[in-house]
Specification:
With 337 residues, this protein is α/β, with parallel strands linked by helices. Helices cover 48% and strands 12% of the residues. An 8-stranded parallel β-barrel has the order 1-2-3-4-5-6-7-8, surrounded by 9 helices. Strand 6 (189-192), helix 9 and strand 7 (228-231) form a beta-alpha-beta unit. The structure holds glyceraldehyde-3-phosphate (G3H), 1,3-dihydroxyacetonephosphate and zinc ion (ZN).
């Protein structure tokens, strides 16, 4: 089976009331970890690459690694998605490189840090939708800026995110605007801002509704019941993954992520794509640190990359089960073939 557009996956997820994790990748081991977990759980998957990931891995490597994934696991429907595209040109180059879905993140200007106004966002997103749909590629848009409702700051941990202090209006997707945006742009999926941010440092205590506005998702879903919603910054930052890193010489400060139960609540209210990167980064780093600490004599990269890959696979497996995508690969494949 070749790579499938995001829309196909999310339509099936909506019809069958489940969510699909979108895992970020930068290298072969991460792709292998996701595919092994998908194979084990019979889950359709979304594999996504940020602009930074594409620069790091190079498009040609990434393209061929994805072809390998499809060849090795023909029974698993896979979508290849551009995460946080910053411009029409970025989205077009992703399409040229075989991506079957692109995110046009027009919530920020092309520099990836200046909050954009509604008109700019709607215009640039509609243009990407027009060009992508001509080629059978799906489009995710974003309305509202990711960032903390407690501090008003976007995150800069991974280089992409709003700079300066943001107002509550900027940090929460407006339901009226969401209706207008989806109608004007024709996006296949809409990423919403509800107080989450990228990286490990999302909340300084277990989040309540004050800082994680799940009710906003419920309201937007009421207004747009047929629109597939996307949650970014949705790593759960589990304590046990933090503990492994800290036990072996790392320094992760106390922090909380988005609880899996809150994501499951989102899935009951129209969330179909859930972006997870940080949890896998934590798992990989913890596993590598453990090998380095316990076996300082080792220097074959396979000695630490294998446990790293296994640790990421376990996170992916757990999320695939928790989000409900497990068990749906064969069913979806029969529906699209
Ligand atoms: O967009 C957020 C993802 O975690 C990707 O991060 O830009 O460091 O690759 P990155
Ligand atoms: P996390 O940093 O919470 O994993 O979020 C990833 C993300 O939203 C990628 O777009
Ligand atoms: Zn994101």
């Amino acid at each position: 089976m070749s790579l499938v557009p995001l829309r196909v996956l999310l339509d099936h997820a909506a019809e069958n009331d489940y969510g699909v994790a979108a895992f970020n990748v930068n290298n072969m081991e991460q792709i292998q970890a996701i595919m092994e977990a998908a194979d084990e759980t019979d889950a359709p998957v979304i594999i996504q690459a940020s602009r930074g990931a594409r620069a790091y891995s190079q498009d040609a490597y990434l393209r061929h690694l994805m072809l390998a994934a499809v060849e090795l696991y023909p029974h698993i429907p896979v979508c290849m998605h551009q995460d946080h595209g910053n411009s029409v040109a970025t989205c077009l180059s992703a399409i040229e490189n075989g991506f079957t879905s692109v995110m046009m993140d027009g919530s920020l200007k092309e520099d990836g840090k200046t909050p954009a106004d509604y008109q700019y966002n709607a215009r640039v997103t509609a243009e990407v939708v027009r060009l992508a749909h001509l080629r059978g590629v799906s489009v995710e848009g974003e309305l509202g800026c990711l960032g903390s409702l407690a501090t008003g700051h976007g995150e800069k941990e991974d280089g992409h995110g709003a700079e300066g202090k943001l107002s509550k209006e900027q940090l929460l997707t407006d339901p009226d605007e969401a209706e207008q945006f989806v109608a004007e742009t024709g996006v296949d999926a809409l990423a919403v801002a509800i107080g989450t941010s990228h990286g490990a440092y999302k909340f300084d205590r277990p989040p309540t509704g004050e800082v994680l506005a799940m009710d906003r998702i419920e309201e937007i879903h009421r207004r747009l019941p047929n629109c597939h919603l996307v949650m970014h910054g949705s790593s759960s930052v589990p304590q046990e993954l933090q503990d492994v890193i800290n036990r072996y010489g790392g320094r992760i400060k106390p922090t909380w992520g988005v609880p899996v139960e809150e994501i499951q609540r989102g899935i009951r209210h129209g969330v179909r794509k859930i972006n997870v990167d940080t949890d896998n980064r934590l798992a990989i780093t913890g596993a590598i640190r453990k090998v380095f600490a316990e076996h300082p004599e080792k220097f074959d990269p396979r000695d630490y990359l294998k446990p790293a890959r296994a640790a990421m696979k376990e996170v992916c497996r757990q999320r695939m089960i928790a989000f409900g995508q497990a068990g749906h690969a064969s069913q979806l494949r029969q529906a699209v073939v």
